[in-house]
Amino acid sequence: MSAEANKELVRRFFETIEKENYDALKDFCHEDYVFYPQIGTPFPGVEGLIESEKKNFDAFPGFEMPIVEMVAEGDLVAAYFIFQGKHTGIPFADVPATGKEARFSLMILLRISEGKIIEQRSFVDVHDIIRQIKD
Predict the structure, then answer these.
(1) Using 50, 70 and 90 to split pLDDT, how confident is the model at 58?
(2) Which residues are CB-neighbours of 5 under 8 A, at least 6 positions away?
(3) pTM for this structure?
(4) Are 18 and 64 in contact (CB under 8 A)?
(5) Kindly report the CA angle at 117 between 112 and 120, in degrees rounded to 5?
(6) Average pLDDT of span 108-118
């Protein structure tokens, strides 16, 4: 796929996540898909991604995640987001819902194989989010 086609795939993928259409995520993910939320234990399969994303949306119901910038080269796409939402749902990182607004940046690096996303790595400052909802 071309770099532009990869970017379009990634754009539609995140629009699907923002709509919380979890069943449709399987259409975007390669059978060997792995999600790395930060550096640490990976979540293999689309089920790991859904588990992770659902927790975020359940903690910040209706939060927005517009893509600010996107760069593609070869089989890689990097996307930069500004997330914002109110912590009114389930606990986030063991912090019970506070009703406070959180706004944070996020970088995600995705690798594309055979027209699908095979690897996703997220880079976010979780301590910044916790600081915002606790202060």
Answers:
(1) very high
(2) none
(3) 0.90
(4) yes
(5) 100
(6) 97
